[in-house]
Amino acid sequence: MNVSAATKPNQAEVVYVVDDDEAVRDSLTWLLESNGYVVRCHASAERFLQSLQSTDKSTISCAILDVRMSGMSGLELQERLISENLPMPVAFITGHGDVSMAVSTMKRGAVDFIEKPFKENDLCGLVDRMLAKARVDYSQASQRKITQSLLSKLTGRERQVLERIVAGRLNKQIADDLGISIKTVEAHRANIMEKLNVNTVADLLRLALSDPQPTN
Question: Sheet containing 38-42: which strands, arranged edge to edge?
């Protein structure tokens, strides 16, 4: 059953299928494309990784991987994606019913696994969950880049002041900590607020605490 135009997935979003079985690739492509998804198939993990080198990093995507393939297995591909910092929601298809293997993939971050033969609704529901996760992951990564770009504008001293603001230190305490005057602390605070484009201390704290990197 095809999805309606109102619920059709964003055409900029891609579902990758990596399976060395041509019949499975053809079946998944037909099923997913008939439900409005954009599908890109690869016959091996190696070809898939090679294709990612020329792929727009802003593309929202997910991957359906076969567990057992000639060459690099689906499990090894998952590890490779993790080690190369290529965050992409993945799920596994298997006809082997290997529950312990499926649990292992999920511990490493796989969204789910699905056994052959699978139902159309189950597969589409899984893809929807993966793409939803991909959107959230991309949004968070984009926000982190913006935050890090703003924080990079701060001088070393301003980062020291910011660290203490985040720790809840008062201006006098910060001045004592750093051996500077209260007026200098106030000037640094004003510069920090301007550079980070925030108007309140609450906004400043939210921005600073969203950055996983230490402020000093």
Answer: 38-42, 14-18, 61-66, 90-94, 112-115
